[in-house]
Design brief:
This protein has about 190 residues and is an all-alpha fold. The protein has one domain: Multidrug efflux transporter AcrB transmembrane domain (Multidrug efflux transporter AcrB transmembrane fold, Up-down Bundle). It has seven helices and no strands. It is elongated and about 70 Å long. It starts with a helix and ends with a helix. One of its GO terms (cellular component) is plasma membrane. Pfam families: ACR_tran. It comes from Paenibacillus larvae subsp. larvae.
């Protein structure tokens, strides 16, 4: 008999290495575009939180980590970062408005709530894209079920983390933020 354990372990390890590389690359890109370490940190904290939610739910569903689930997590990292940046940038935009009446935590919660529907609708679209995979039966359907489930779970994790984490961590950002100083560092 041929032992398939070693090649599978190697594939999973390679996938994890590539996911970590992708996450680090995403951090560098976010830092280059946002030009602010604090907002970058707020954005990237969502990554491990969302993935932790996915791993915990997959464990409860007795679905193992494999190439398909790890692939779905890798795809989800892009959504995590994107949604988090959308919320953070909306907070920044609202803080920069001279006509803004809200301040501090109220402003951050309002700006986060303002992005609720756009992020929710884009998350639903992402889930809808993978729904046809549910109709696939047989061995191919079994192969894609973990990917589809994990992508949906990650999408929920993204949604929850972006709203909680961005609003919560945004309060840390606002405590020391100076709009006049920050305008010089942002494009």
């Amino acid at each position: 008999m041929l032992d398939q354990g070693k090649p599978i372990e190697d594939s999973v390890r390679t996938m994890l290495d590539k996911a970590v590389f992708g996450a680090l690359f995403a951090v560098i890109i976010i830092l280059l575009f946002l030009r602010n370490i604090r907002t970058t940190l707020i954005s990237i904290v969502s990554i491990p939180l969302s993935l932790l939610i996915a791993v915990l739910v997959l464990k409860q569903m007795d679905i193992s980590l494999n190439i398909m689930t790890l692939g779905a997590m890798t795809v989800a990292i892009g959504r995590i970062v994107d949604d988090s940046i959308v919320v953070i940038e909306n907070i920044y935009r609202r803080m920069s408005l001279t006509s803004e009446r809200l301040k501090g935590k109220e402003l951050i919660l309002s700006a986060t709530r303002e992005m609720f529907m756009p992020i929710m609708s884009s998350t639903i679209v992402t889930i809808a894209v993978f729904l046809p995979l549910a109709a696939v039966s047989g061995p191919i359907g079994e192969l894609f079920t973990p990917f589809r489930l994990n992508d949906c779970i990650c999408a929920y994790g993204i949604f929850a983390c972006c709203h909680y984490n961005s609003a919560h961590d945004g309060t840390c950002y606002v405590q020391e933020w100076n709009p006049q100083e920050d305008k010089r560092t942002r494009a």
